[in-house]
């Protein structure tokens, strides 16, 4: 079981810091080598030692020392980054590794995505309320939700309207490579702690709201050796996540 403390953002995490973490990890830098480089970048905007420490912990967990069940996901992410380091691919990889490493961020993404689909907008109060229903502890959940939503805003996956506290979808990324789609599907299953999921649920999962996934289907998932699709009834297919 993952420790509860590991599932949440305790500070806003900017895209530029995740991008740099991904780049350093892809260059095979170890954490001891990457940490001072990242600390310098974070300190340029945050002088507080506690904030720097917490942001470093988040980047470390996402790109350098992820949970054991996300190690293969990370290895493939670094390979995909080396093949294509476009801004769109970088966002996709950052999103997938973040929700896999931090389940609460995945839950927040799922809530935001569901609200955007239903209402075309997501109110911060509604996001906080729905997350409190899952996690309890009103003050704590409200606080970490603010950090998570602030991160989403910085990443550009949502935009804020006036009055504040109302969010619309940002510009969606359309993954063009089947490997990217299959990798992202695995990230969702790890984030949601699922070893099996209905194919229709996975292909339309609200936690994937930053991406246009019209081409995500059973054939695409075959490009990921850790995913297996099986038909279990006349009209029901399931995706299974296996270790290799």
Protein described:
- The protein has 244 residues and is mainly α.
- It folds into three domains: 4-101; 104-169, Arc Repressor Mutant, subunit A; 178-241, Arc Repressor Mutant, subunit A (Orthogonal Bundle).
- It is 57% helix and 10% strand.
- Helix 4 runs antiparallel to helix 9, helix 5 (87-101) crosses helix 6 (103-119) and helix 7 (124-135) crosses helix 8.
- It is globular.
Summed up, what is this model?
The protein is mostly helical.
Topology:
Layout lengths: L14 H12 L4 H13 L5 H16 L6 H13 L3 H15 L1 H17 L2 E2 H12 L2 H18 L2 E3 L5 E4 L8 H14 L4 E3 H5 L14 H4 L5 E7 L2 E6 L3
Helix pairs in contact: 1-2, 1-3, 1-4, 2-3, 4-5, 4-9, 5-6, 5-9, 7-8
In angstroms, what separates the terminal alpha carbons? 20 Å
Strand count, sense and barrel status of the largest sheet are:
3 strands, antiparallel
**Classification by helices and strands:** mainly alpha
Helix content: 55-70%
Total count of strands? 6
Radius of gyration: 17 Å
**Cross-sheet strand order for the largest sheet:** 1-3-2
Summary keywords:
single chain; 244 residues; mainly alpha; Arc Repressor Mutant, subunit A; 3-stranded antiparallel beta sheet; 6 strands; 10% strand; disordered N terminus
């Amino acid at each position: 079981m993952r420790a509860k403390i590991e599932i949440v953002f305790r500070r806003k995490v900017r895209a530029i810091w995740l991008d740099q973490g991904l780049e350093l990890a892809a260059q095979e830098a170890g954490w001891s080598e990457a940490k001072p480089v990242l600390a310098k970048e974070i300190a340029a905007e945050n002088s507080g030692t506690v904030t720097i420490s917490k942001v470093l912990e988040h980047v470390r967990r996402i790109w350098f020392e992820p949970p054991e069940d996300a190690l293969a996901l990370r290895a493939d992410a670094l390979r995909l980054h080396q093949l294509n380091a476009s801004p769109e691919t970088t966002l996709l990889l950052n999103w997938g590794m973040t929700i896999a490493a931090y389940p609460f961020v995945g839950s927040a993404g799922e809530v935001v995505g569901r609200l955007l689909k239903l209402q075309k907008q997501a109110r911060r109060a509604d996001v906080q309320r729905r997350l409190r229903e899952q996690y309890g502890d009103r003050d704590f959940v409200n606080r970490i939700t603010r950090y998570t939503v602030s991160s989403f805003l910085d990443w550009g996956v949502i935009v804020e309207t006036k009055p504040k506290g109302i969010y619309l979808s940002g510009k969606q990324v359309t993954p063009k490579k089947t490997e990217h789609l299959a990798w992202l599907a695995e990230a969702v299953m790890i984030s949601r702690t699922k070893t099996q999921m209905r194919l229709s649920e996975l292909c339309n999962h609200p936690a994937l709201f930053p991406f246009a996934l019209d081409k995500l289907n059973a054939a695409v998932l075959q490009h990921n050796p850790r995913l297996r699709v099986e038909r279990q009834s006349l009209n029901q297919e399931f995706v299974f996540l296996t270790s290799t």
